Amino acid sequence: MEKRGAYFFVLDAIIAGAIFIITTVIVLGSYLNTPTTDQSYLLAEDTMKFMLNTKIKDFHDPQVLEWAENGDINNPEQSIFQQVAEFYFLNMDSHATNLTRIIIESLWPQQYGVSYSIIEETQNQTIYERYSERIPNSKFLQTSRKLTFFKINETSYFGPAISEVRIWG
Amino acid sequence: MGMNRKAILFTSMALMISALLTIMFGAYQITPVDERVGLDTLQIRSGNQHIITLIAYIKTTLSTSTYSALQGMIEYIWINNEDDFFFDDEEDIKASFKECILYATLNNSNDPCPFMENQTITNFLQRLINLTNKELSVETNITIIDIWIEQQNPFSVYTYMNLSFFVKSKKLFWNRTELLRVSTTIEGLKDPLYFKGGVYNSTFKESLTKIFNRTTFEKFVNESEYKTVQTVNVTESSGGDKGMSFFARLTDDWDGRNDPWIRIASIVSPQKLIDAGFNPDDTYNRSNIDYLYWNKYEFGVCQLFYVKDNTNQALVSGSQLLTDFVNLTVEDIDSC
To answer: Is the pLDDT of residue B27 over 90?
Structure first.
């Protein structure tokens, strides 16, 4: 009689242990629904904000210093955003691409794809892009766009155009 | 029997707790309200920044369009130079400016305003509207209520534009009326007063010299610079010797409203007169101060002076030399 009681208690403990283990496995193995939308929107906006608010003179890079010494950059007080637009307007495409590449590679690790484009009234120009082949398989794709213009002289200005940052991963 | 009931009870409890844990972690995770609010706040900030950029763009284009309109008005004076055309008065300047900057026409739409094709403020704003509607999915409407020009500084003008704009995106909209003011330099524009001489042109260029001596005076003349002019009595003429502001030069009216702090003058270079085909000896009793020279104001014999040892030999009244070109002394000047 007592052996039967002990038998049931042991069996009960084994069943309880099995339930606990199975539950733990299910909980730890389940997919956590992390909200990625907000985070990636923040990052696209942050990239744009960084380019808008950082002056060229505050971004220390050997290539940028070389351009400043060559006279390719003649206004170190303007933002990176404006400098890229100026390079683009002056048809210094390689400078625009290289400056954008330097900025993006300093901000973004390699698992993210990034592109920077300038959209005018009649044409779109991709200034820099990497890993565009990953877009179809990416889990998110976010865009940040800003109105772009700058004054050239008293009678002409560049713009209006749209500068666009896209990030995917 | 009692033990079986306990066993059943405990087993049931264990199953219930397991099921509860599974439901808690396996169910769809609802985003808490706080996180959503953060995203909306970010979008609103981004939208506000867009409005700030929009206004900055409008100001830039207003300045660009203003300069082009002034260029066009001055060119219009030149085109009609044979008819001795100048604008009537300040009201005419304002009305003509408004017509030119909005519609690229002058003289009540009878004539085109030169240089204003695709340079009107209307055109610039329309390009902005088209682009933002298409690329930013933002509906933008801008209406110009009024636009006018004033001169309060000697080498620049203020353009005022009263406008209303309506901007609407998916979740946000702005409906505002703004009065914008931009300052536009007149440097680089041709001086219409010099059209009276025909071929000898001059463009506005502010002198950076504060204190003149023989050397800087010579540079001032040779480089056709301009400076503000103090009130100086030269002779008993009705106009006196007041200098002429930019607006006064558009109307060729040295008696008109001519606030002292905006009066400017340049010195007509004798060498440039010769290069333009003038014989300086024909005007020996005329001051080389530009508004006196081009309005053919003559002085008595030996009432004009020149700065010694200067190659340009520009003639100016003695009091003007000492008042408007500070630091030149009596020993620096000579007459006849």
So the answer is: no
How far is A155 from B137, CA to CA, in rounded Å? Answer: 29
Residue A162, judged by CB atoms within 10 A of its CB (0-12, 13-18, 19+), counts as: buried
- ipTM for the predicted complex comes to 0.73
In A, which residues are within 8 Å of B28 by CB distance? 33
- Percentage of residues of chain B with pLDDT beyond 90: 48
Q: How far apart are the first and last CA of chain A?
A: 65
A8 interaction partners in chain B (CB closer than 8 Å): 3-4, 7
Residue B13 exposed, middle or buried by CB count within 10 Å (0-12, 13-18, 19+): exposed
Residue B239 has pLDDT above 50, yes or no: no
Q: Name which of A12, A27, A147 is nearest B11 (Cβ-Cβ).
A: A12
Burial (CB count <10 Å: 0-12, 13-18, 19+), residue A29: exposed
CB-based contact, B32 to chain A, within 8 Å: no
CB nearest to B130's CB, from A27, A38, A121: A121
Secondary structure (DSSP) of A59-95 = S--HHHHHHHHHTS---TTSBHHHHHHHHHHTT-HHH
CB-count burial class (<10 Å; 0-12, 13-18, 19+) for B199: exposed
pTM for the model stands at 0.81
Using DSSP bridges, classify how beta strands B156-168 and B173-185 pair: parallel, antiparallel or unpaired.
antiparallel
Query: Which H helix or E strand runs over B47?
Result: helix B33-79
Tell the residue number behind the tokens 């001519």, with chain if given. B258
Instruction: Identify the three-state secondary structure at position B288.
Output: coil
Q: Do B127 and A147 touch (CB under 8 A)?
A: no
Structure token digits, residue B216: 């800087």
**Cβ separation A12–B71 shorter than 8 A:** no
User: Radius of gyration over alpha carbons of chain A, in Å?
Assistant: 27
Q: Does A119 touch chain B (CB under 8 A)?
A: yes
**Does residue B196 sit in helix, strand or coil?**
helix
Q: Which positions ≥6 away from A40 have C-beta within 8 Å?
A: A140, A142, A167, A169
Pairing outcome for strands A124-130 and B304-307: unpaired
With contact defined as beta carbons under 8 Å apart, do B148 and B160 qualify? yes
B330 in contact with chain A, both atoms CB, cutoff 8 A:
no
Which residue, B128, B149, B151, B136, is CA-closest to B60?
A: B128
Name chain A contacts of B185, Cβ cutoff 8 Å.
Answer: 154
> What is the rounded distance in angstroms from the CA atom of residue B97 to the CA atom of residue B68?
10
HSE, side-chain direction, 13 A CA sphere, residue A106:
12
Q: How far is CA B135 from the centre of its chain?
A: 30
Of residues A1, A148, A20, the one with CA closest to residue A87: A148
Instruction: Express each pLDDT in B285-303 by its tens digit.
Output: 888 999 888 888 888 877 8
